[in-house]
Amino acid sequence: MKKLFFLLAAFCCAAALHAQTEITTVEFSFNRDAIDFYIGNTEGAVANKITENTSTPAEVGYYCSNMYLLYENSPGNFWGIGLGEGAISGTKTYAVELQFCVKTDYAWPADLNTLIFIWDGDTIVPGLVENVTPTVISAFLLLGAPAEAPAPTYTLTLVNVDKHGYPNWTYTGGDYFEGTSITFQYKAPEDGKVFDKWVSEGLTLTTEQEIDNPLTIVMPANAVTITATYKNATAINNVKLEAPKSKKIIVDGVVYILRDEKVYNLQGMECELPKK
Question: 153-232 domain in CATH 1.10.3470?
């Protein structure tokens, strides 16, 4: 589980005169419904409320007696979480209330003055903690919103491909999220060649898709390579417009012959109709 480190020095009070220390460095990570955290030498899991005590070594001089998870109701305004309420999400800001019990022979460290927040009514505000002993202090550590892990992307590699609608604009693919729809077309074949079919690795194409142009795919959760393949153009002898099963097609003033679902020029070479 990825750990995040958050030092509350960013929220220090401008009037503070004491040097900052790492005594309140908080290491925490958001789970589905809880926060795991580690502060100083005290560790525990914060869910709605943890009532068991967790202690620190004697030389630290204090221990954390209770821990509460608070969530943002409005900016700067925090409410406690009840059972089944206020699930962890990326839309709220969170704070942890730590009730510290200071030992009778220990003065609260002045170095904490700039590193914690004090509860003031129903808001969290920067504040100074005076050296007081003994006492129970509620400190509020502002954790911020949980970071949402970005969705992974997968690489699409295209060979002999142009951008859809832009002939001669080479398109080599890119990185895409799962479920992304991508459309592209094969490059115009060289003289004496015609398009054969699409060959795919990492994605199964239907029989219809293998000869589609343009081709549209939906990106799966893995890398994909798609290549436009070509074959030699076939030729027929004695091309005649009036031959059985032949059909004359004129595109931009050029005559083509359609026979047996193939297109030929007047020289008898198999070709393709110009793309519009």
Answer: no
